[in-house]
Amino acid sequence: MTVVPGRRRGSAGRVAVDHTAEQDLRALFGQSVAVFASFAGPAHVVEAANPAFFAAIGEEHARTGLAVAELVPGRAGQGIVAVLDEVYRTGEPYTGRDVAVVVGAGTDAREAVFDFTCEPLGGGDAEVTGIRLIGVETTQVTQAQRLVAEQRGLLEQIARQAPLVDVLDGMARCLENLAPDQVLVSVLLADPDGLHLRHGAAPSLPGFYNDAIDGIVTGEGVGSCGTAAHRREPVIVTDIAADPFWADFRELAARAGLAACWSTPILARDGGLLGTFAMYHRSPRVPSDSDLALARVFADTASLAIERHHIEVAKAEAEARAEAVRDELAEALRAEHELRAEAEQRAEAAAELTARMRAAAAAQATAPHPERCQLGGPTGCAAPAEIKIADSWGDAAWGCPDHAEEAILNVGSVFIASEELGGLAAYLNR
Fold first, then answer.
1. Which end of the chain, C or N, has fewer beta carbons within 10 A?
2. What is the rounded CA–CA span in Å between residue 34 and residue 387?
3. pTM of this prediction?
4. Helices 164-178 and 289-364 sit at what angle, rounded to 10 degrees?
5. Is 134 in contact with 117 (CB distance < 8 Å)?
6. CA separation, residue 214 to residues 77, 254, 280, 295, 322 (Å)
7. Residues 6+ away with beta carbon under 8 Å from 277
8. In this structure, what are the phi and psi dihedrals at residue 45, rounded to the nearest 5 degrees?
9. Under a CB-based contact definition with an 8 Å cutoff, are residues 401 and 387 in contact?
10. Can you name the residues that pair with 394 across neighbouring β-strands?
11. Which of 24-28, 108-112, 143-147, 278-282 has the lowest mean pLDDT?
């Protein structure tokens, strides 16, 4: 395993990292590379060049005295030669902006972006004898512009409260597009207790892999993400096949074609665990400073999105609870109103029955045992008078069983004045 210079090596396949925000900016937007070369004659033979020029075309060709066509064969060389031919023929300088070229060779080949100027040597009244090329690599600047634009778009999504799954999915795709090498991004979200990690976003990982790691525990040695969540610090596994942290997941990773995993914890402002941000690679790989800086930048963006989501969820839950309390209060008020109305109705019924009893008692004072119920109210009751009832004020009346029961239920002081028990006189003289 190759250890990245300037970092301290951990256990097998892992690299421990120290960083600052300033180092992140330097890694992402560092100084550009200046390229210089001087060409002679119509064949554009390299007379002089700086190391950056030779590094761009491949170190194996790092010598002067060769024509550009020999140094840069193929289509790329044809493009350069065509520009040099035009400048040599016309004597007019040429300026190229944001020109994408492949620099290096073999496994070191990469796409880079340059701004450059080709100036004729001699010229004017004199014949053009050669060309001077001065260029500046703007790859990092171009990447920075893309990063800023993508970050602005993500922040706008967060500000307008777009669904968290959409923000995280867009963020993962953004980094996969920005990274110079193929990378597969995954975001896992921590449960409230911080003991498990749930699927958040992983647009390029196989579905079976996402399903398998959904719900993994956080803990020492639980892959890259479980360990990063447990430690609250980045865990860089450069070779999954050889790393003990991946013992339980090695076969799964092999099925998914994953060979390296760099995981960064996503932390809240108070240090609480929100989730993890992982970058997977198809082959064993040690991260560069810019790789780690990108991971931290996007982990911070994910932190902002997740915290905002938690705030909105808590707000919605609080509003739902408040609405439930308001509904319960309204129901209690409605029930209280119904009970009050029912009580008032009972009071009115009791008053009416009491009035009937008094009227019946007054009539009974001068009349024998009535044949019909005296408690039927204004409409009367034709049922036989079978039960005598009385109250504690001395009023008594005869009624049918139904009206007598109604009086007993609605007037608290009413009782059956049973003659077998001495009747009302026995009660009054007790």
1. C
2. 118
3. 0.52
4. 180
5. yes
6. 50, 17, 16, 21, 33
7. 185, 186, 187, 263, 264, 265, 266, 295, 298, 299, 302
8. -80, 135
9. yes
10. none
11. 24-28
C-alpha dihedral sign at 165, 170, 171, 175? positive
Phi, psi values for residue 229, rounded to 5°: -65, -40
Q: Which two tokens stand for residue 185?
A: 């991004």
CA 103 vs. chain centroid, Å, equals 39
User: Could you give the CA distance from residue 245 to residue 229 in angstroms, rounded to a whole number?
Assistant: 13
The sign of the torsion formed by the CA atoms of 160, 161, 166, 172 equals positive
Q: What is the pLDDT of residues 15-72, one digit of tens each?
A: 444 445 545 545 554 555 788 889 999 999 998 888 888 877 765 556 788 888 877 7
Measured distance CA(385)–CA(214) in Å, rounded: 81
Cβ neighbour number for residue 125 with a 10 Å cutoff: 5
Q: 84: helix, coil or strand?
A: helix
Tokens representing 139 are 């790859």
Judge whether 204 and 174 are in contact, CB under 8 Å: no
**What DSSP letter does each residue of 235-248 carry, written as one string?**
EEES-GGG-GGGTT
Tokens of 235: 């865990």
Domains in the chain: ranges and CATH: 33-137 (3.30.450.20), 143-316 (3.30.450.40), 341-428 (no CATH)
Annotate 266-306 with DSSP letters as a single string. EE-TTS-EEEEEEEEESS--PPPHHHHHHHHHHHHHHHHHH
Contact yes or no for 25/148 (Cβ under 8 A) = no
